[in-house]
Amino acid sequence: MSTTENHDSAVTRERGKAPAGERIADWADGRLGIYSLAKSNMRKIFPDHWSFMLGEVCMYSFIIIILTGVYLTLFFHPSMTEVEYHGSYVPLQGQLMSEAFSSTLHISFDVRGGLLIRQIHHWAALIFLAGMFVHMMRVFFTGAFRKPREVNWLFGFLLFVLGMFTGFTGYSLPDDLLSGTGVRFTQGAILSMPIVGTYISMFLFGGEFPGHDFVARFYSIHILLLPGIMLGLMVGHLILVFYHKHTQFAGPGKSNKNVVGMPLLPVYMAKAGGFFFLVFGVIAAIAAVAQINPIWAMGPYRPDQVSTGAQPDWYMGFAEGLIRFMPGWEINLWGHTLVLGVFIPLVLFGVVLAALALYPFIEAWITGDKREHHILDRPRNAPTRTALGVAWVTMYMITLVGGGNDLWATHFHLSINTITWFVRIFFFVGPVIAYIATKRICLGLQRRDKDKVLHGRETGTIKRLPHGEFIEIHEPLSQEQLHTLTAHEQYEPAAIGATVDENGVERKVTGKEKLRAKISGAYFGEDQQIPKPTVEEYKEITSGHGHH
Amino acid sequence: MSSQDIPEENLPAEQSAGHNEHVHGAVGVADEKNPFADPGLPPHEHRVQDIDERAAKRSERAVAFLFTLSMLATVGFIASYVAIPADKSIFVFPIGHLSALNFALGLTLGTALFTIGAGAVHWARTLMSDVEVADERHPIAASPEVRAKVHADFRQGAKESALGRRKLIRNTLFGAVALVPLSGVVLLRDLGPLPEDKLRHTLWAKGKLLVNMNTNEPLRPSDVAVGSLTFAKPEGLEEHDEDFQNEIAKAALMIVRLQPDNIKDKRELEWSHEGIVAYSKICTHVGCPISLYEQQTHHVLCPCHQSTFDLSDGARVIFGPAGHALPQLRIGVSDEGYLQALGDFEEPVGPAFWERG
Amino acid sequence: MKKLSARRRHPLAALVVLLLALACTGGLYAAFAPASKAQADDSAQSLTIDEGKKLYAVGCASCHGTGGQGTSDGPSLVGVGAAAVDFQVGTGRMPAATSQGPQVVKKKNIYTQAEIDQLAAYISSLGSGPAVPTKAEYGPEGADIAKGGELFRTNCAQCHNFTGKGGALTKGKFAPTLEDVDPKHLYEAMQTGPQNMPSFPDTTLSEQNKKDIIAYLHAVNSSDTDNPGGLELGGVGPVSEGLFAWIFGLGALIAVAVWVAARTAKAKKS
Fold first, then answer.
1. What is the pTM of this model?
2. CB B324 to CB A148 under 8 A?
3. Fewer CB atoms near the end CB (10 Å): N or C, chain A?
4. Which CATH number does the domain B200-341 belong to among 2.130.10.10, 2.30.170.40, 2.102.10.10, 3.40.50.720?
5. A262 contacts on B by Cβ (under 8 Å)
């Protein structure tokens, strides 16, 4: 109501007397209602924590990619027409190449600043994906995906997956020998799909590989279709972040019902706005000193040429790993071929990603928790989730190692066959070891927290008691620290509900229910978490030992 | 406040001075689940800049300096753009020889941007208020009244549309909306031709000479030494041809010569000429041009996914993800003494696919 | 004949004629030089072979057999030619260490060039093979760098990488980096196919082709190669780029984020 009043008073004021900015704002409010929007958002509170800025790294690198990408479209020719190169890079003069490749050479050598923009574009893309990965892991390990943020988790997940494909289509555009090899791999993987593979391949490439169409098609996918969807998702993602208000770590004064931090105007306007320039500045500096994707060194694509060390950009490395360590299974039956050696990795690629996307829903089902969560978990306080997450990351990293097996072989003087076997085994064993180790570490950390709460902080000062015993002085924690260390929630394992209802009628326990109880036991059962210290325990110890 | 449960010295009231004086925000209640009450936000502490105007002035000057540096860097960017030729190379330790223009533009642009950000952040950190503020959260879900109202509105709207009652309208509407996207799907038909048997044939045919990729001359058996590696294409296929890329993607050939007694596979020996064997260069896994030939072991490795084939044993797969052997091309010698194909490959080259069989 | 007439019109024909002329001049000079010297040369040749034989007996015979016939420890050297000897000994690969890994690697060469020539002369006397190439064969004059690049990508890049940074082979073997390798050794390696590398004899990869490849390698992979974009990051493609983006790109940005989000230092309590 107060806004309308302000508005009215502004209107009743004589025209021309109000400052220009205010008049423009009034004008806009009369048409767009910006004041109502600003009312709740202008002083929106954002908590301070470095890990909350990872999402901003992604958003800003995405904006940088769009800006530099638009510039590149001014010079890039998405055409596969073969031309003879006569530009300024001597070692390719007179060579036949597609227009796409020759225009990329033109951007790199003949457009002033073109190479810089290309390098910023590509570095920003690698950082964008790396940022999304780390951001996602932050959200995962702190439990920020819980209600009400599951949808935003999916938006973020989709941004990551679409980012992978946007990156891949962009990497393919220059039509150089490296990216062409990657496209060939994609085509081979498509061919492996049962029944529809050959058709999809023919339709995607406009006939046989490589054909004359894929650069133009990938171009429209790369610059329009995927980034368009991503932009929409990113806006939705941001709106939801505003709407839900940011999560925060537990601490004094921080509860599930508030958010503590600095206001958007002016502090976060300056910090977040400034961070955009910082990100852009860092990436520009990287593009000044480090070369990326030197397509001139790779040469134009020819399907009969190849180079060793043919890898995709890092975010596709895990697909590369999956395909490299897969045994060559192939089934021929009734005149048809089932290319399991390629098709299984293709399916696994989807499964590994889908596991990540679905996790919040699985966990919500196990806990049965319908409440909103705005206080973040410390990873140690959700040991099973943390262990599962680390197991997933371990599996991902092992496939990345598999994707670069030839380079590890040459750089560490190993046998490529040994590495491949290592990856084959550790793809299965690694996550199990990681799961067990992480869980133990988490429980250890929980125990340490409990000790700290009950016995205080170890000061490192040793005292000798009158009877000769040496003790270390423990300093009791402040109320803030005690609260912070015990603010986390601990679930009880879900039990199978009464099997007999109030009327004495026995009901059937479903398999689903049993499964849930079993998993819940693994999450929250005995020995799966260290019970929080209770007030009684605290009292007993503090009164019993006294203060050292 | 159930403060009885908490040891006395930890009661908010018992906190040392400065802790309890400025307690603001909600103070949590200690209970079974949260044994230690939330003491509330710690009091605000001043920064140097808040109490010392000289320190604030220093911060102001630092911010202004950063913004000025940005302006200078932008001038530097424009000057570099104008002054440095695109092809000038300089040596920068420890990076090496690089483009002077790229280096200058990148560093000036990076500085111009970074200092704007650094200035803004320094300003925010040292001069803007750093008092922490708490904002209330409200449940995302609507109140029961709102929920009931929306449900009622929806039911009324649905009832007024009579969509449920007039089934004919509903069903035909669903039908129409379901069918209309088909037009879009149909339009995709001309994205490409049908596969037919395109993947089964290459340019190789009976009598086609094997032309050396390097010299563009037909090969004679005497040209190919034991332990050497040669790549060949079918006679008549030239780099300038319209569909050179598509054809070479299937027809690329790898030629090696083995001692005939080293050839273990009977058919391989039959299809060879004096120990010269010709295999498809396209990997049967996903189609990389495979050609990492180890002349002592006769193994050939694919650089993309490490499938390894034994060229002395019918190009059988001995390691890696490929599912079947490399196709062999049957070769012989023409009347003029050149190596020639005795037909096309008997099986499709390259990656396996559903219809391959 | 057809081949020859086609080549006569080649743009490089003039150069070839010039080189031939130079060679002839040299030959004529040698022919007309004092006879005593020619005789000395002759005896010098047999002396060289004798010296080589001695060196062979000390450094090579234990593996390759007393007459170069080969043993279970080393292949026969009959017919490998002087080029193979010059490459293997000149790059320090031979004599090989007694306990070797999957393949014999480059190391410090312990022979002088004169001794290598003597060894080469001895091995050549066992059976003819490719001779050591001359500077005219591997030098940069008359090379087509772009053609060399295409040939390199067709014949070499699959093992040695786009610009010759090296790459992995099976079971711990590898194709070594070609950075700043002596052009003569590059030429000899192509000609003779050391260890598991296949050979590329003149009949399938012509002398001109080899010259082009060597010139291309010098342009893209030597200490004075330009990397316009900055750090080369090993020149091995996206793996090192990805590591760089994670460690230095994201690493720097996280460091910056820590600074942005950190609380400003408080004034000391008085």
1. 0.89
2. no
3. N
4. 2.102.10.10
5. 130, 132-133
